[in-house]
Automatic annotation (TrEMBL):
PANTHER family for the chain: ALLANTOATE AMIDOHYDROLASE (PTHR32494:SF5), ALLANTOATE DEIMINASE-RELATED (PTHR32494)
List of residues binding Zn(2+) 2: D86, E121, H362
Protein name: Allantoate amidohydrolase
GO molecular function list: hydrolase activity, acting on carbon-nitrogen (but not peptide) bonds, in linear amidines; metal ion binding
Residues at which allantoate binds: R203, N261, R274
Cofactor: Zn(2+)
Pfam families according to UniProt: M20_dimer, Peptidase_M20
Length: 389
């Protein structure tokens, strides 16, 4: 089975006929179809599939009870209207790498797992890398089982949950292949690179409350309009990030009562912030919140800021990166990944990136050329072959 045929089978699942983007939210129909696809492909390779209480999947080549296993893979879920490659490229490449190693007669001296972590994007229940956080014990089930999606469905209603199973205890290291979410490899004119680490990042919910009123009869000076507070906060976040060379984005907003001819009573917005260091992230978030509070006082509104998830800076295992990335360019990433969660949990981890000619991600424009994908499979197979000796 070649990479191309695997990709051909996967590509139509969850794709919008309107935008060309993907809607593969966890435990919804498209993502469940992808999970079935993964089980079928694992069975075709005589790989035994294990599922933990949170929905994470791993297909084993060899007996995991032997311990010190090598884990590879990624995730299958997407953001809303996302790209084809973010996550699935790592899963397909891992299966293709198994095929390639078998063609070469590789006999692994330690077990290999191909993993699929669930809800990596946080697009349904709001917490990124949820599956890997739960699997490592970094997040407790009791703390998240009540998380609800936009339709009010709770996490505990769609997955069993409970205490982490010890499958990660058998894992000695993790290598994740991923499409690059930027243009560094384009600028360097190389198809594959290796990651040095992940910028610290997080999500903060801004709840701004004011007073609902009539859009026509209420004088401007008599309003307590939370939309004004939000708008100025979004501008402040943009300014602070640009001035400091960091990242700040308000990409999601909810308004009540959401009427065209009414001053809103409440605006809830989510800030995604990322920075080159933990200190820089703290300064960025504090500066945005300070300006939001000052604007709320001026507008006569009330502000509450809640940190929904914060992940510190992660440096990948330097020795492992050197072992799998000899001759490859080394670059940081501003995007969060399951590999970062496992590294932070004490499992040595590394990442390979495949060039994205558009530089665009979390969008239907996300892309990786077939030749570069094949180079990624070759790099991953070579890395795993060395680690499995």
């Amino acid at each position: 089975m070649t990479f191309e045929s695997l990709w051909h089978d996967l590509a139509p699942i969850g794709r919008s006929a309107t935008s060309g983007g993907y809607f593969r939210q966890p435990w919804a129909s498209a993502e469940l179809e992808l999970r079935a696809w993964f089980r079928e492909e694992a069975a075709a390779r005589d790989l035994a599939v294990e599922e933990d209480p949170f929905g994470n999947l791993v297909a084993w080549w060899g007996d995991p009870s032997a311990g010190d296993a090598v884990l590879t893979g990624s995730h299958l879920d997407s953001v809303l209207d996302g790209g084809a490659y973010d996550g699935p490229l790592g899963v397909v490449s891992a299966l293709a790498a198994v095929d390639l190693m078998r063609e070469r007669g590789v006999q692994p001296q330690r077990p290999l797992g191909v993993g699929v972590f669930v809800e990596e994007e946080g697009s349904r229940f709001g917490l990124a890398c949820l599956g890997s956080r739960l699997a490592t014990g970094g997040t407790r089930w009791d703390d998240v089982r009540g998380l609800a999606d936009r339709d009010g469905v709770r996490l505990g209603d769609v997955v069993t949950g409970g205490a982490p199973t010890p499958w990660l205890d058998q894992v000695g290291l993790f290598v994740e292949l991923h499409v690059e979410q930027g243009r560094a490899l384009v600028d360097l004119e190389v198809p594959v690179g290796v990651a040095s680490g992940i910028w610290p990042h997080g999500r903060w919910r801004y709840d701004v409350t004011g007073r609902a009123d009539h859009a026509g009869t209420t004088r401007m000076e008599d309003r307590a309009d939370p939309m004004l507070t939000y708008a100025m906060t979004a501008l402040a976040a943009n300014k602070e990030a640009r001035m400091s060379g960091q990242r700040a984005t308000f990409g999601r907003i909810e308004v009540a009562p959401n009427g065209t001819n009414a001053v809103p009573s409440r605006v809830t917005a989510w800030l995604d912030a990322r920075a080159e260091s933990d200190a820089a992230l703290g300064e960025l978030v504090a500066a945005v919140e300070k300006q939001a509070a000052e604007q709320a006082a001026s507008d006569g509104t009330r502000l509450e800021v809640t940190a929904e998830s914060v992940t510190g800076a992660v440096g990948f295992d330097a020795g492992l990166a050197a072992a799998i990335g000899e001759g490859l360019p080394v670059l940081p990433t501003q995007a969060g990944h399951d590999a970062g969660i496992l590294q932070a949990a004490g499992i040595p981890s590394a990442m390979l990136f495949v060039r994205n000619p558009t530089g665009v991600s979390h969008s239907p424009e996300e892309l990786a050329e077939t030749a570069d994908c094949l180079a990624g499979v070759e790099a991953l197979a070579g890395a795993l072959e060395g680690l499995l000796r």
